Amino acid sequence: MARVALVTGGTRGIGAAICKALQEAGHTVVASYAGNDEAAAKFKAETGIPVYKWDVGDYDACAAGIAKVEAEVGPVDILVNNAGITRDGFFHKMTKDQWSAVIRTNLDSLFNMTRPVIEGMRGRGFGRIIVISSINGQKGQMGQVNYSAAKAGDIGFVKALAQENANKGITVNAITPGYIGTDMVAAMPEEALKRVVAGIPVGRLGKPEEIAQTVVFLASDNGAFATGATFAVNGGQYMA
Ligand code: NDP
């Protein structure tokens, strides 16, 4: 059944692939982004998907943004919490700003985005909440104490929220991608990236589309029995 899907960070990388795949699956898709207007305009021109700008770390901005989307497009039935950032560095050198930016964008965002939609989903008796966590939230990653903590927090959020809403037709799941070829990974030092790829049994980086198809399944009516789960899509790099 076609529904309204909102994808945060939907204008680039994994989020853009998720938007396109949900659109191909017949859903009415809306993408949010933070500030890269050029990428957002290009994405909108290519896909026809409407784009909305707000900071997922800001609760009031999320509540206002979601109200606007719901007024203009319709009630959000599928929420994909995808927006995320890294601010890497060893913990003994990490600044409070690096810590806070990552927790805010990758973890606080789950409250900020999900709280405004959950009551509507409960009232309508249907909802799909999908969180893009990370392999590094499962295994930990040196140089990413902030990111590993936030992404592990995402998984706890999913498990608890799934229990609270399972009897209301709402599923809540996490996907933990391994290393996927996007701007985020392109920002890694070349040598570090080579070492990472050498540790992936499939022998390559993942593609954004390979994450997107997992989202399409979880968002579908056939995904109704999957809830509170963590879906690893990582080329065999980590088998938790
Ligand atoms: P990209 O850096 O390619 O894209 C990030 C997207 O998130 C952009 O659309 C960006 O908007 C948006 N965004 C960033 N900060 C905010 C904010 N504060 N408010 C609203 N939107 C924001 O990231 P990826 O596609 O690589 O990653 C997507 C998700 O997948 C993230 O949660 C990431 O942690 C996770 N992930 C990625 C992996 C990878 O290998 N790439 C591996 C595991 C997990 P704008 O364009 O305006 O900046």
From TrEMBL:
<dbReference type="InterPro" id="IPR002347">
    <property type="entry name" value="SDR_fam"/>
</dbReference>
<dbReference type="GO" id="GO:0018454">
    <property type="term" value="F:acetoacetyl-CoA reductase activity"/>
</dbReference>
<dbReference type="InterPro" id="IPR011283">
    <property type="entry name" value="Acetoacetyl-CoA_reductase"/>
</dbReference>
<dbReference type="InterPro" id="IPR057326">
    <property type="entry name" value="KR_dom"/>
</dbReference>
<comment type="similarity">
    <text>Belongs to the short-chain dehydrogenases/reductases (SDR) family.</text>
</comment>
<dbReference type="Pfam" id="PF13561">
    <property type="entry name" value="adh_short_C2"/>
</dbReference>
<feature type="domain" description="Ketoreductase">
    <location>
        <begin position="3"/>
        <end position="178"/>
    </location>
</feature>
<keyword id="KW-0560">Oxidoreductase</keyword>
<protein>
    <submittedName>
        <fullName>Acetoacetyl-CoA reductase</fullName>
        <ecNumber>1.1.1.36</ecNumber>
    </submittedName>
</protein>
<dbReference type="InterPro" id="IPR050259">
    <property type="entry name" value="SDR"/>
</dbReference>
<dbReference type="InterPro" id="IPR020904">
    <property type="entry name" value="Sc_DH/Rdtase_CS"/>
</dbReference>
<dbReference type="InterPro" id="IPR036291">
    <property type="entry name" value="NAD(P)-bd_dom_sf"/>
</dbReference>
